[in-house]
UniProtKB/TrEMBL annotation:
GO BP term (any one): diaminopimelate biosynthetic process
Cofactor(s) listed: Mn(2+)
Organism expressing this protein natively: Belliella pelovolcani
Superkingdom of the organism of origin: Bacteria
CDD domains: M20_Acy1
NCBIfam families tied to this protein: amidohydrolases
Name of the featured protein: Amidohydrolase
UniProt keyword annotation of Mitochondrion present: no
Amino acid sequence: MIKDKIKSLASQYKSEIIANRRHLHANPELSFHEHETAAFVQNQLKSIGITELETKADTGIVALIKGKNPDKKIIALRGDMDALPIFEQNEVSYKSTKPGVMHACGHDVHTASLLGAAKILNDVKEEFEGTIKLIFQPGEELIPGGASLMIKDKALENPKPQAIIGQHVMPLIPVGKVGFRKGMYMASADELYITVKGKGGHGAMPETLVDPVLIAAHMIVALQQVVSRNASPKIPSVLSFGRIEALGATNIIPNEVKIQGTFRTLNEAWRAKAHQHMISIAKGIAEGMGGEVDFEVRKGYPFLKNAEELTNRAQNAAIEYLGKENVEDLDIWMAAEDFSYYTQEMDGCFYRLGTRNEAKGITSGVHTPTFDIDEDALEIGAGLMAYLAVKELDA
């Protein structure tokens, strides 16, 4: 059976997949600067006999594995390659060698898993019909998102896939398990940059000032009504402010205050309305209190919707591969992912790979300086992705 063969190959190549992951983890590169990573990926692909390669969006790579009757059906598999601006605090042999840059979101896992899947699929290409397109993309962590640039650079053309599958580490799920969700899964994500302008001066003479700190405080509280009183309770929405900069002192009122935040939702029509609500509320408060405001909405990734039938097939295939007890149903998650751009173009399935192991102390969340994985997940990450591709080609 192809399942048993893929499992055997995943086990056989496990140490190599781990070595690739450790190399990537020790040599992280920030979004859209993945030059060394891209060269490493190309060399790895060529070493296993995959030579149909193209560079896309400067540091992205597209490669093809052709089975029998290669035009019958095309399936894409995606992995992202960029790291985050974080100082790693793990004391491990593969710790980042670049201070202030770290694979804290598991993209080293995604890239190593896709390389492993590529090696497995290349070994069994005489046993499936169709073509598997490998997409190694840059810049998932940074607007406008590497996926959007890969699409603009025609990564989904010549040949055009009928569907795309991607995976992402999940430190909340124990190693050995995976998670799926059909339909709406992840939120859109917009960045908010607000500058409140007033007239600063001595804190002892408030009657001579237009206090932008006070205006900003009213604004932050009032903007919460966008979610609590304007959004339908049926539409998940989140509005959060994570940075406030008022460079005054105990007795100095500054001329301006800068605020940064994020808005996330799962409905594009409401998303557009919410932007206008926020701008209107902010301007009204600022003008009513004698100040001004510049309100920039930096539009990020769209919401991510997993195709129902594709995801149902993938989840059933995962049950075949791992057993029903190791396949979980996921809830909606208000984080964002630029894989969503691919799902705007074709059917997509984005699932989660469990990496947690409490016995080993591996419990840190993504985007933290102590994030790490149980590397047993890599055997599943590579093998399952290969199996999902083969099963979907045969669907």
